Amino acid sequence: MHLQALVYPLFIISAVVHAGDLVDRVIASVNNSVITLKRLETRTAELSHILAKPKSPSTDRVPPMAAIRRRALDDLIDEELILQKAKNYLRKEAAERYAQRSVDEQLSELQDRLGKEEFEALLAKDNQNLDELKATMVADRTHLILVQQARQSWVDEYLLNPVSQAQVDK
Predict the structure, then answer these.
(1) Domains of the chain: which residue ranges?
(2) pTM over 0.90
(3) For the residues of 84-125, what is the DSSP string, one character each?
């Protein structure tokens, strides 16, 4: 009986201590990414350490902790935006490369099927040359790929974040 009375409070204390490790507060959201309290505290400590170094030009006038914390948050937000922009750029570049390959294959296949002369005659009939046609097709295909990726991203986000009935009613 006494052992059970002692084990239960220890279990509760252990659960409370470890709960802090498992859950981290979200303090900022940058598009679909989050910045957690732990990341902010780490960055604040790093900035505070840099500003308080003896050889630092700002040693005489170290800003208040609230200002350091705000700068750390601004830095984290800026970094997240830069990372997202880089990812979007790389995504667009990859989509363009894929579109270019698929358009080249499609036009090559069409040219083989029709023959070079008939293919060029069709282009001339539409007052277009091969480069213009390729550029238009690649731009259209790239746009389609990026839209499909965005839609898939939104679907994934909604599947991972179920909507409550109260949100539906709004």
Answers:
(1) 20-162
(2) no
(3) HHHHHHHHHHHHHHHHHHHHHHHHHHHHHHH-HHHHHHHHHH
